[in-house]
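pinging the channel bc i need a second pair of eyes. not urgent but kinda urgent?? the chain im working w is below, pasted from the shared doc
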Amino acid sequence: MSDVIKNITVTAAHDAAQAGRVLLVDVRTPTEWEQTGVAVSAHTFDMQSATFYQDIIALHNTNPEMPIAFICRTGHRSMLTARECASRDMAVFNVVGGMAGTSKDSGWIDCALPLKTVTTQS
């Protein structure tokens, strides 16, 4: 079992995702995606979905050697997800600062990194 979770900054996560070195996964809710947009290269998996971990496993299985970098609003939910996935022997990163940033870490939006618009059906 792997228990190694590395933190990665939003700029490093963006660069790694663009270069094809990580799979970026946004674990926030559809409402949050609509409010702020989503990192341009991110896959979106709602942490509240009943199939959340199955969806992550399916993504992981498309390229099992590729680490997954999880992002949320500030880094808390992404860390919870990273811990669970690390316990399933996945190589993972937690994107510190998340989309909104914290008092310690700049977020994706603060750094003016590219976003895509997400529209969900209610």
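so The chain has a mean pLDDT of 94. and The chain has one domain: 7-105. — does that match what u expected or am i reading it wrong
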